[in-house]
Amino acid sequence: MNCLETRITDDGSQTFYSQEFGETFHTKYGAKAEAEITYVQGCRLADKIKQQNHLKIIDVCYGLGYNTAAALDCILKINPQYQVEIFALELDETVPRQALEHNLLNHWSSNIIQLLSELCNYKQVNTPQLKLSLWIDDARQSMSKLATKNFQADAIFLDPFSPPKCPQLWTVEFFSLLSQCLNRDGIIATYSCSAAIRSAFLEVGLSIGNNFSIGRRSPGTLATFESKYLSPLSQKQLEHLQTRGGIPFRDPDLTSISETIKQRREEEQSLSNLEFTSKWKKRWFS
Ligand SMILES: C[S@@+](CC[C@H](N)C(=O)[O-])C[C@H]1O[C@@H](n2cnc3c(N)ncnc32)[C@H](O)[C@@H]1O
After folding, report:
1. Distance between CA atoms of 91 and 241, rounded to whole angstroms?
2. Which atom of ligand 1 is closest in space to residue 99's alpha carbon?
3. Choice from 21, 91, 140, 256 to test ligand 1 binding pocket (greatest atom count within 8 A of CB)
4. What is the pTM of this model?
5. Residue 15 lies in a domain
């Protein structure tokens, strides 16, 4: 088993560091805060709970389970009888197990810890109001299955490692699967504000806006079919999308390894007539 190191973040909650990806699993400004602000607030779960009687959520890259924990916390506080269905997608089943073994979920109630332990052990939880499933596989495979089932989510939490480290979950083709599984009022939330991923959302027909920010981090991204929920991008951000940095990652058959996906993008960038991102930076930052 790949034994993960723990790291403390600014709000007192802990996260893991991945040697394999060379990144922590959450922002240093607060792991719990990130789950609550970027994902639960970003997807407007509290409003949705008041407006509809059932929520469907996809948690892409479940990891330690913080985003699902924060969603359950929000839902159960507003209405303990509320009906919710969550598909949690994760490649490495040792991650949620190690989070539970290190007691990292202790910031949430014992009820939520109990539910997530059951989810980790049995890969599903079924109560009259909760239907939770943990699918251990490459998220590209899992999303293809959800699209085949015609699952329509109200909220999608998109939380892979960063685009340079895990480009396979930030491609136009993967986002196309996300959009197929998003209902007309649904919201995709992520922490990333990279121009490449923002362009990928636009290419699959979604509208984009700024997500809430945490600490001194730039705001992440929200993507929806309905732009009424979105706070629009600034002129600077819009111009960034028109540079070579805005060329998205591509993975035509959803099976490429990360090096191939990065190389494909570099080739597309080298043939592009778009402005160099360094020129855009000079215009806006000097
Ligand atoms: C940034 S962490 C997610 C943190 C998580 N949302 C949380 O709240 O703890 C990224 C996660 O993506 C998982 N992962 C990496 N590649 C994946 C893939 N191809 N499919 C699904 N999950 C993947 C990693 O094992 C890791 O748990």
Report:
1. 30
2. 9
3. 91
4. 0.97
5. no
Number of domains within the chain: 1
Q: How far is CA 140 from CA 131, 133, 253, in A?
A: 22, 16, 10
96 lines ligand 1 (CB under 6 A): no
In a domain, 121, yes or no: yes
Query: Mean pLDDT throughout 249-273?
Result: 97
Q: What is residue 54's three-state secondary structure?
A: strand
In the chain, % helix, strand, coil (3-state, to 5) comes to 40, 20, 35
Which residue, by CA, sits nearest to atom 2 of ligand 1?
A: 25
Give 181-215 pLDDT, tens digit per residue. Answer: 999 999 999 999 999 999 999 999 999 999 998 87
Q: Whose CA is nearest to atom 19 of ligand 1?
A: 138
Token code pair at residue 86: 């969550």
CATH for 199: 3.40.50.150
Range of the domain at 95: 31-285
Tokens, residue 241: 């999308």
pLDDT the model gives residue 227:
81
Residue 95: inside a domain, yes or no? yes
Residue 8 inside a domain? The answer is no
Task: Report which ligand 1 atom has the smallest distance to the Cα of 66.
Answer: 8
Q: Is 159 in the pocket of ligand 1 (CB under 6 A)?
A: yes
Span from the CA of 159 to the centroid of ligand 1 (angstroms)? 7
